[in-house]
Amino acid sequence: MELKAKKFTPDAILPEYKTTGSAGADLCANETVVVKPGQATLIKLGIGFDIPKNHMMLLALRSSTPRKKGLFIPNGMGIIDSDYKGEFMLLVAPLGNEEVVVEKGERIAQTILVPCKHIVNADVEITKIVEVAELEESERGEGGFGSTGK
Q: CA-to-CA distance for 121 and 12, rounded, in angstroms?
């Protein structure tokens, strides 16, 4: 599959998969940004994609970003619809009470291309959400947050 990307500035860095097993392609900051305590800050990434129909892209931090930079995504994860054609941006906030500097060109996040079965078109069965009184039983049941072990 070929994924078309557009640079919104000449010096933007195209995302790349670092290994053949990488689920996400690394995204770089397209500007130096100071993230102040208590503030959510947008970081421009300088790129956008022609996301294929029936797909979306997820934006997530690289696994090392919270530990190395002390940043998190306030809304958990970015979801980018296939009809969005603008520049990708990442919303971050600091975990602590210190300013965090993100340097231009720094690998800060990753994007993951995900199929979306529920998007309406002639080629895809529509997922219909229906209310039920009870959910089917499973081995896990209602256990969450570590209930399956270490």
A: 34
Q: What is the pTM of this model?
A: 0.77
d(CA 125, CA 121): 8
Number of domains present in the structure of the chain: 1
Q: Is the pLDDT of residue 62 over 60?
A: yes
Query: If pLDDT is split at 50, 70 and 90, which confidence band does 57 have?
Result: very high
Single-letter amino acid code for the residue at 11: D
In a domain, 83, yes or no: yes
Tokens of 50: 């022609």
Q: Cα separations (Å) of 135 from 10, 16, 131, 142?
A: 52, 41, 10, 10
* Phi, psi values for residue 42, rounded to 5°: -85, 135
Return the CATH number at 85: 2.70.40.10
Cβ(67)–Cβ(109) below 8 Å: no
Q: How many residues does the chain have?
A: 150
Residue 64 dihedral angles phi and psi, to the nearest 5°: -85, -15
Query: Would you say residue 125 has pLDDT above 60?
Result: no
Residue 20: inside a domain: yes
